[in-house]
Specification:
This protein has 9 helices and 12 strands. The strands form 3 sheets. It has a 6-stranded mixed beta sheet with strand order 6-7-8-3-9-10, with helices on both faces. The chain has a 4-stranded antiparallel beta sheet with strand order 2-1-4-5, with helices on one face. It is α/β, with parallel strands linked by helices. It has a domain at about 1-85 and about 155-245: 3-Layer(aba) Sandwich (Rossmann fold), CATH 3.40.50.300. α7 (about 170-185) links the parallel β7 (about 155-160) and β8. The structure holds adenosine-5'-triphosphate (ATP) and magnesium ion.
Length: about 250
């Protein structure tokens, strides 16, 4: 279980997280929604131990800060919202970086590493890109490669910051189906979305506003609150439940 209690993060004077509690169980998919600047990326960074926070985080019952970076890397994999784009590397090499936490200092590339690499490339439909140089790929192709790098770690928990960014509708659907499958196989997933309709695929949604949890539950139960938080949004009933879309009343 990944568990946080009383998480607080300050950037100088600005309080980005103001006491967040969170539980993510293996096999559970939790979606994180919230306006720009509400603290979603900060929450992921704190859960990964990548910035200073007050409060407590435990992974599998052990304090996060007591784990080595290798152990953290094997338990938690991360897709950043705006990660650096390494130059001069082929896709295969970028995805292979996801295996580092398993390799140790003098690690050899094993059969297990190769299998994880193949799994990651296949799951993201990136096999045909494997020999391309990363910097030559389109935005959506790059996003799938970064997702593959996170999957290659075969972590217990996946923390994904806006994984649908840059993806076309078909690749968005494939990603949601992949995350459903991975969670059924026992991986705990925490994924940031902006589109509430993506969060419908998750088991549970947490709505973060101003660094605090405003509401939590299955997406359909949060629709009224979403309309209060996003005044420009509109909800429509459909046979698959309510969908939330941006309106476009002329200003
Ligand atoms: N390095 C930083 N230094 C100072 N302030 C920061 C820093 N990073 C984030 N902030 C501020 O902290 C708040 C939360 O930022 P965060 O990136 O967590 O928001 P977010 O919910 O991920 O937003 P978005 O939807 O735009 O990605 C914002 O007000 C942001 O301006
Ligand atoms: Mg963010």
């Amino acid at each position: 279980m990944l568990r946080a209690r009383g998480l607080r993060v300050r950037y100088g004077e600005r309080e980005a997280l103001a006491g967040v509690d969170l539980v993510l169980r293996p096999g559970e998919w939790l979606a994180l929604l919230g306006p720009n600047g509400s603290g979603k990326s900060t929450l992921l960074l704190a859960l990964l131990g990548l910035l200073r926070f007050e409060g407590e985080v435990w992974v599998e019952g052990r304090p996060l800060l007591g784990l080595s970076s290798w152990e953290r890397g094997r338990l938690l994999a991360y897709l950043p919202q705006n990660g650096p784009v390494p130059e001069g590397l082929r896709v295969r090499e970028v995805v292979a970086l996801g295996r580092l936490p398993h390799q140790g200092l003098f690690g050899r590339w094993t059969e297990e590493d190769e299998a994880a690499l193949r799994f990651a490339l296949a799951s993201t439909g990136a096999e045909a890109l494997a020999e391309r140089e990363l910097t030559t790929l389109s935005g959506g192709e790059r996003q799938r490669v970064f997702l593959a790098r996170a999957l290659a770690a075969r972590p217990r928990y996946l923390l994904l910051d806006e994984p649908t960014n840059h993806l076309d509708l078909d690749h968005q659907a494939r990603l949601l189906a992949l995350l459903r499958r991975l969670s059924r196989e026992g991986i705990g997933i925490l994924s940031v979305f902006h589109d509430p309709n993506h969060a419908r695929a998750a088991d549970r949604t947490l709505l973060l506003v101003g660094g605090r949890v405003r509401a939590e539950g299955a997406l359909p139960t949060l629709v009224d609150e979403l309309l209060r938080v996003y005044p420009g949004a509109e909800a429509y009933p459909t046979p698959k439940g309510p969908v939330v879309l941006p309106g476009w009343e002329e200003a």
